[in-house]
């Protein structure tokens, strides 16, 4: 009787194993829990339940905290498994602060800078030659004319046509983040200083001296500076905030794909820009493969596009996903001059001079 029972149990066990195999295996479970510090613009990506599920299927549970990208090197980095700033420039400083050498950094995705504007502000800029509209909700910010107006301390009231929009008052400026701690603010200085330096990357003290007065005007007129792009972006979307806001294209692309864009939002691509390759810096061994996974896994690339990011070498993916939203976006970045950023030392010197 015992032998018969053992045989029956064995058959049932084998049947259960076969059923699991036929179903494609057991439910995937995470094998590594890693914690990282990221730029705030990636917080929604890592919170997305589909991203959490996709990462878990590959063996990762990821916990994150946010920080300005240029402030990450001042954090107690040993408590993190990785850092994920919004551009490549802070990565060497992060590596040095974390006491690691030769980290296998990866750049899973990137996002160019854009300026989001209220439709009334965009129209006034366009009517005065500071911008060029390419559609109802899209256009190009002409950096040369815009910086000339900023250097002359132009106000909205001095721009013909603004009288029809009494809400446009005071100095014409773009609300940015703190260039000393936030990647978007620093990269905006990189782009504007390039234009102010006869379309050349600022590379020495003499060029810093030539461009610093204008950089100072761009920053000082703003008053208090935000530490991350998320706060001014959310203010704009809620209907408050300034009429011109610096943002990442990813924030806009995610919004329009969710069909949540304000009706009066216009996306202006600066005609000179610095792309922002989000750079994954592994600190612990547990996180070493995560950056590569984010860059290469088809499902995670698809989810990155859903959150507005452009995967590396992923123009077709981004274009296909955002095809229905061409009224806002410039998938091919047509007509946009992309320039390099100064060295970290030069850029931080510019930021220091800009903040006074």
Write up what this structure looks like.
With 356 residues, the protein is an alpha/beta fold. The chain is 40% helix and 17% strand. The protein has 14 helices and 13 strands. It has helices spanning 2-22, 43-47, 49-57, 91-98, 119-127, 143-151, 183-196, 205-220, 230-238, 249-257, 290-296, 298-306, 315-321, 344-355, and strands spanning 32-38, 60-66, 82-84, 106-111, 113-118, 131-135, 138-141, 244-248, 265-270, 272-273, 276-282, 310-311, 337-338. The protein has a six-stranded mixed sheet with strand order 2-1-3-11-4-12. Strands 6-7-9-5-8 form a five-stranded mixed sheet, with helices on both faces. A hairpin with a 2-residue loop joins strand 6 (131-135) and strand 7. Helix 7 (183-196) packs across helix 14 (344-355) and helix 8 (205-220) crosses helix 14. The longest helix has 21 residues, at 2-22. The relative contact order is 0.18.
Could you say which overall geometry the principal axes of the C-alpha atoms support?
globular
- Count of beta strands: 13
Low-confidence stretches: 1-28
User: What share of the residues lie within helices?
Assistant: 40-55%
What structural class should be given to the helix and strand makeup? alpha/beta
> What would you call the quaternary organization?
single chain
Q: Give the strand content.
A: 15-25%
Radius of gyration computed on alpha carbons: 24 Å
Mean pLDDT figure: 89
Number of helices: 14
- What order do the helices and strands follow? HEHHEEHEEHEEHHHHEHEEEHHEHEH
Q: Can you summarize the main beta sheet?
A: 6 strands, mixed
Distance between the termini: 90 Å
Order of neighbouring strands in the sheet with most strands:
2-1-3-11-4-12
């Amino acid at each position: 009787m015992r032998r018969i029972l053992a045989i029956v149990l064995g058959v049932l066990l084998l049947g259960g194993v076969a059923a699991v195999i036929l179903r494609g295996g057991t439910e995937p479970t995470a094998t590594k829990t890693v914690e990282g510090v990221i730029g705030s613009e990636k917080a929604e990506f890592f919170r997305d339940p589909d991203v959490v599920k996709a990462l878990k299927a590959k063996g990762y549970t990821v916990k994150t905290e946010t920080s300005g990208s240029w402030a990450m090197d001042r954090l107690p980095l040993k408590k993190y498994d990785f850092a994920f700033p919004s551009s490549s420039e802070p990565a060497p400083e992060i590596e040095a602060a974390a006491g690691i050498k030769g980290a296998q950094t990866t750049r899973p995705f990137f996002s160019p800078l854009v300026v989001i504007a209220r439709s009334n502000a965009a129209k006034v800029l366009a009517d005065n030659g500071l911008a060029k509209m390419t559609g109802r909700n899209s256009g190009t910010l002409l950096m040369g004319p815009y910086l000339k107006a900023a250097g002359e301390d132009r106000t909205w009231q001095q721009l013909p046509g603004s009288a029809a929009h009494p809400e446009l008052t005071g100095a014409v400026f773009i609300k940015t983040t703190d260039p000393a701690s936030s990647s978007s603010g620093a990269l905006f200085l990189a782009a504007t200083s390039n234009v102010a330096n006869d379309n050349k990357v600022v590379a020495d003290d003499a060029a810093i001296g030539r461009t610093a007065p204008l950089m100072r005007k761009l920053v000082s007129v703003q008053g208090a500076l935000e530490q991350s792009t998320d706060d001014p972006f959310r203010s704009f979307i809620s209907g408050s905030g300034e009429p011109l806001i610096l943002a990442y294209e990813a924030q806009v692309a995610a919004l329009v794909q969710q069909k949540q864009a304000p009706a009066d939002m216009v996306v202006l691509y600066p005609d000179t820009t610095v792309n922002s390759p989000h750079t994954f810096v592994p600190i612990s061994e547990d996180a070493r493969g995560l950056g590569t996974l984010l860059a290469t896994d088809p499902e995670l690339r698809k989810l990155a596009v859903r959150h507005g990011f452009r995967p590396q070498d992923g123009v077709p993916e981004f274009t296909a996903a955002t095809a229905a939203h061409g009224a806002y976006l410039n998938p091919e970045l047509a007509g946009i001059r992309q320039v390099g950023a100064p060295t970290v030392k030069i850029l931080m010197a510019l930021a220091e001079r800009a903040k006074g």
